[in-house]
Amino acid sequence: MFIDLHTHSVKSDGGLEPFQVVDTAKEAGLRAISLTDHDVIDGVEEAMKRGEEVGVEVIPGIELSAKFKTETHVLGYFVDLKDAAFLEKLEEIKRVRMQRNYETAENLRKIGFPVTVEDAMELAPNGIIGRAHFARVMANRGYVSSVKEAFDKYLSNGKPGYSSLQLLSPRDAVELIKKAGGLAFLAHLHLTRLEGQELYDFVKDLKDAGMDGIEGYYTEYTPEMQAEYQHLAKKLDLAISGGTDFHGKMKPHISIGRGLGNMEIPYEVLENMKKLRA
To answer: Where are the domains of the chain?
Structure first.
């Protein structure tokens, strides 16, 4: 009766085909997942079809990157995969993403890592690349010991390889998801690096823009963070979602449904999200 509502496939920066993500979820005993590739929905229909075949509920999803003073992503669930305005905006986002990749490559070059966009593209069979591809190249070449180290030292927000170039603001991301008929949830709150009143004000502002909830379960949350964020959701009358940020071999330390090994996200979380659509 467990779920994972934050997963990625090769359609963005994951290591498995969409159907393989579903198969992996089935093997892990999960009841439901959402495929939330970065800024694209290209693999969602394939995942949903596979889910019907093997008995795993697949929620259509996406993870939108947003420009803010810290790293901010917004998860969209139950989006209309055929919404013309939504699809048009995703094409624009894709163009900006590629500009960001070139900026990331240049940032890495400046600090002594000659990693190019072309190098990253060799690991991306679908032509969509992100930081995980750069991290994998760095790990493969021995510049770092792991993908995690590449993120921790060079590619996370505030680190020398990071590029903040984005098309959308957090409010824009929420509004885009809502206009496409979806539910909008703020992802991995700890990466915003906001705390206390500042975090409260930020989340409340997004709620005022139509945001439905926040990610209350996440791989990197400490027990204290999880308790704090879930309390914040209750305080602001927001729903919670939860996921591992599974990327397959691109982030091999994260297991689907289990994160670093001890996550359990109850199906009740998804049931509560569905009630928002009733």
So the answer is: 3-90+165-275, 95-155
